[in-house]
Amino acid sequence: MRKGARRVADVLPEIRAGLSAGTVQTASLVEWYVVDFAALVGAVLPDLAAPAKDAIKAEDGITKRMAQAGRLIHESYGLTAVDRLATGPSDTARGWAAYVIACEPALSMADRLARVRPLADDPHFGVREWAWLAVRNHIAGDVAGAIEVLRGWTDDGSANIRRFAVECTRPRGVWCAHIPSLKAEPEPGRVLLEPLRADPSRYVQDSVANWLNDASKTRPEWVAEICSRWLKESPTPTTDYIVRRGLRSS
Question: Is residue 25 in a domain?
Answer without folding.
Answer: yes
